[in-house]
Amino acid sequence: MISQTTEYALRAIVYLAMHSDTAFTTLQIAKATRVPPAYLAKVMRALGKANLVNSQRGFGGGFELTRKPSEITFLDVLNAVEPCRRIRKCPLGLESHGVNLCALHKRLDDAAAVIEETFAGVTIADILAKPTKSIPLIETTGVN
């Protein structure tokens, strides 16, 4: 349903939210979230461009959230790495459809709207408040 890139971004944001009093390097986040470091570096750049994380260079530097977990939604993270695409006109360019979408594309757009609405209503704080047993919590010991 969501791409691997989006999942990696969510893992990183959740990890930073779990440790909001500390900055972490890309390597530390990668180890803790089990994301390949080179791939995570690209994801973190995208999250930085979207102003979801701030990075500080040098000793004691690293990444940290720019906002409280309650102010960051899943949709914010999704849009930072792979924006939700809505269908505004016929992807096939058929003039016969005019400004109206055909039944197929209308339903696809309706589904995208539901996903967008759902993700906009879930914050990172919501995830931290209600962890589930089916999703293992990220191990924090031994992270250097």
Q: What does this 3D model show about the protein?
A:
With 144 residues, the chain is mainly alpha-helical. 47% of the residues lie in helices and 6% in strands. The chain has a domain at 4-83 and 123-129: Orthogonal Bundle (Arc Repressor Mutant, subunit A), CATH 1.10.10.10. The chain has helices at 4-18, 26-33, 37-49, 74-81, 103-120, 124-129; strands spanning 53-56, 62-65. A hairpin with a 5-residue loop joins strand 1 (53-56) and strand 2 (62-65).
Key structural traits:
single chain; 144 residues; mainly alpha; Arc Repressor Mutant, subunit A; two-stranded antiparallel ribbon
Report the helical percentage.
40-55%
Q: Which sequence of SSEs, written as H and E, runs from N to C? A: HHHEEHHH
> What is the CATH homologous superfamily assignment of the domain at 4-83 and 123-129?
Winged helix-like DNA-binding domain superfamily/Winged helix DNA-binding domain
The CATH architecture designation of the domain at 4-83 and 123-129 is: Orthogonal Bundle
Give me the count of strands. 2
Q: Detail the poorly predicted runs.
A: none
CA radius of gyration is: 18 Å
Strand line-up in the sheet with most strands: 1-2
The number of distinct helices, counting runs of at least 4 residues, comes to 6
CATH domain class of the domain at 4-83 and 123-129: Mainly Alpha
Strand count, sense and closure of the main sheet?
2 strands, antiparallel
Task: Look up the CATH topology of the domain at 4-83 and 123-129.
Answer: Arc Repressor Mutant, subunit A
Shape: elongated
Strand content: 5-15%
Span between N and C termini?
A: 32 Å
Output the structural class.
mainly alpha
Name the average pLDDT. Answer: 86
